[in-house]
Design goal:
This protein is α/β, with parallel strands linked by helices and 194 residues long. It has a domain of 117 residues: 2-enoyl-CoA Hydratase, Chain A, domain 1 (Alpha-Beta Complex). The chain is built from seven helices and seven strands, in the order H-E-H-E-H-E-H-E-E-H-H-E-H-E. Strands 1, 2, 3, 4, 5, 6 and 7 form a seven-stranded mixed β-sheet that branches. Helix 4 links the parallel strand 3 and strand 4.
């Protein structure tokens, strides 16, 4: 083999190695939700996720530790997560406490990539409200709350192994339902215990 052919072949082999290395490197964004599911924190989470997705990222590692919070903000983050899952993988990790609105966010990670700490406290319940005012206003608010709860049941059922009927049965108890990490995996809220 001539010296020129050997050099060309060696260059091609090096180019293949470099291309393989580039393909194997993944970019990861670390996003965390610690504390209440409220406007300020959710704005930060949404902004980070969208910047990363539109920047061509491969994986979002979403850490969650929350007592819950506003249902409207939970749905905002959930909608962005659904969009992000079309472009990259979302690995969710529940640590410490994942309660109320946090449960859907944990479950909304990419299937197979949802983790929960062995000692994480998980709690689920139906929607709660503290309404007041004139009777027609309270009736209107109650109707809206019932629609929101039905939407929550639908998406939670879609993201987990729980049927809508099972979730309604849990919520009919009108209690905070505390789950172990093992129960969360069994119900499809998470895939793996760490």
């Amino acid at each position: 083999m001539s010296k020129q052919k050997k050099t060309k072949k060696k260059l091609e082999e090096e180019q293949v190695e470099v291309e393989l290395e580039v393909e194997e490197q993944k970019t990861v964004a670390l996003v965390s939700l610690h504390g209440p599911v409220g406007e300020e924190k959710c704005e930060e989470v949404i902004e980070m996720m969208l910047k990363y997705v539109y920047g061509g990222g491969d994986l979002i590692q979403f850490l969650i530790s929350t007592h819950g919070g506003l249902v409207s903000e939970m749905f905002a983050v959930y909608d962005v997560m659904r969009l992000a899952r079309e472009h990259c993988s979302i690995s969710t990790l529940g640590l410490g406490k994942v309660m109320s609105a946090g449960v859907l966010l944990l479950a909304a990670g990419t299937k197979g990539s949802r983790q929960v700490g062995a000692n994480c406290q998980i709690m689920i319940h139906g929607l709660k409200a503290e309404q007041g005012g004139y009777l027609p206003t309270m009736e209107n608010d109650l109707e809206n709350l019932q629609k929101l709860q039905e939407r929550y049941i639908n998406v939670l059922s879609k993201e987990t192994n729980m049927s809508k009927r099972y979730i309604r049965k849990l919520f009919s108890k009108k209690l905070d339902i505390f789950l172990t990490a093992e129960e969360a995996v069994e119900l499809g809220i998470a895939d793996e215990i760490i």
